[in-house]
Amino acid sequence: MATTTHLNILGAAVAAAVALIPSTSSAPAMPAWAARLDADELALVGYAGHVPDSKKPKLTAYFARESYRPRSTASLVITDTAGSVMLQVFRCGGATERPTMANDVLLGAPVTQPVSIGAVRGRRVVPVRLGNWPSGVYFVQLTAGAARVGYATFVLRPRVLGMNRVAIVLPTQTWQAYNFRDDDRDGVPDTWYAAGKTARLIRPFLNRGVPPHFKYYDAPFLRWAETTGRAADYLSDADLNATSGARLRRAYELVVFEGHHEYVTTHEYDAVVRFRNLGGNLMFLSANNFFWKITKRGSMMTRVAKWRDLGRPEAALIGVQYYRNDMGEHRGPWIVQKGAARERWLLAGTKLAVGTPFSSGGIEADEVTSKSPRGVRVVAKIPNLYRDGRDADMTYYETAAGAKVFAAGAFTIAGSVAEPQVRQLLDNLWRRLSSD
After folding, report:
1. Given strand 300-306, what is the order of strands in its sheet?
2. What is the per-residue pLDDT for 13?
3. DSSP letter string, 419-431
4. What is the pLDDT of residue 216?
């Protein structure tokens, strides 16, 4: 239930009910759908950071699946009207070190030339032939006229699992939970952050098709992975739901959860636990992961319950678990702890030592609990982050089966990878956890 550090809070009641907007703006009226929510639901809306939709000219489109294989044909669904549309496919990441500056812009390296698909009207399904491209996060860019732009993202999974020894998982389910698009136009966004317990999974995103919070949580990590040549298979939540923990372990040494992976099915949770129990390594680079159980039926997700309330606290897997969000009002540097001194490889080349501050984190925080694995070490922490005496804990632990598990404990190591010390820390983690 994350928001972003780059947004200001207008006031608890308004921010919990509507968008986060710059403090220089006048407070908007509470929308009708928000007025019908109870206190818990209003809190969820605030935590989600409901960002207003882009006002720029757009084209609306989405892919019919979360992921596709190379050399397959993807179904692009365009739900808009335009006279002459151009289509081009890009890969996220390696085109530039330049960060994305807007919520409604995707940057990447082109993998096809622009092609004309002619006119679109109302709803049109366009087959997009995918090349023998490396696994990654891709998007189609649609343009019409001088200003209309739209994006549709998809994960290009490997031809078979294990093409590389590392898998990077994209939080495709959580992206859609944060999607405040009102698909059926009943005045209520189709997500449980607005009403009820369901959210649509296969649909367009707001902001011209850019997944929520992508520029903060996902894009920096993808740029780092691409520009530093990290060989990896990229998977969606749908791909995790289609495999087993044993198969994951045969395929991968390391599975990386780079973004905000809050919502998972029982199958996903079981698969990742089994992967860890078989000696597979895990990296969680954000916070508040594996917090809610969901079910999926067709293109609809249903939020069921917190995993800890079902007797499966996420700290037992991750090492830490979520305890608080203050919508980014308080942030602080991680401070290296004594636990890191026992893992000299972790700090190698970073110029960090016990007591040294680095980077800055917050927004949501995790902590070690009584359910954390025995031997978990706090390697860094943000002390007293919310002024309530509790810390945001960055942790590492190993199991008897040889699994190595790292968790950032706050937002977000992945999003801070442009900072030299974080970059080196992540390089150390990748090298250590991806080795046999």
Report:
1. 198-200, 300-306, 292-297, 263-264
2. 27
3. SHHHHHHHHHHHH
4. 86
pLDDT in tens, 283-318: 999 999 999 999 999 989 999 999 999 999 999 999
The answer to whether the beta carbons of residues 335 and 421 sit under 8 Å apart is no
Taking CA 146 as the corner, what is the angle to CA 144 and CA 151, rounded to the nearest 5 degrees?
A: 45
**What are the C-alpha distances in Å from 389 to residues 192, 372, 382, 384?**
31, 19, 11, 5
- Per residue in 20-62, pLDDT tens? 223 333 444 556 656 555 555 555 555 455 567 889 999 999 9
Contact 263, 308 (CB under 8 A): no
The span from the first CA to the last CA of the chain, in angstroms, equals 35
pTM of the model: 0.90
Q: How far apart are CA 125 and CA 64, in angstroms?
A: 9
Which of these, 411, 397, 308, lies nearest to 366 by C-alpha position? 411
Centre a 10 Å sphere on the Cβ of residue 334 and count the other Cβ atoms it contains. 29
What distance lies between CA 250 and its chain's CA centroid?
Answer: 25
Dist. CA 181–CA 198, nearest whole Å: 13
CB 392 within 8 A of CB 361: yes
Closest CA to 171 of 137, 209, 220, 128: 137
| Structure-block tokens of residue 47 | 């935590």
Query: Within 13 Å and on the Cβ side, how many CA atoms surround 227?
Result: 17
Phi, psi of 322 (to 5 degrees): -60, 140
Query: 263-264 and 292-297 as β-strands: parallel, antiparallel, unpaired?
Result: parallel
Q: What is the mean pLDDT of residues 118-146?
A: 95
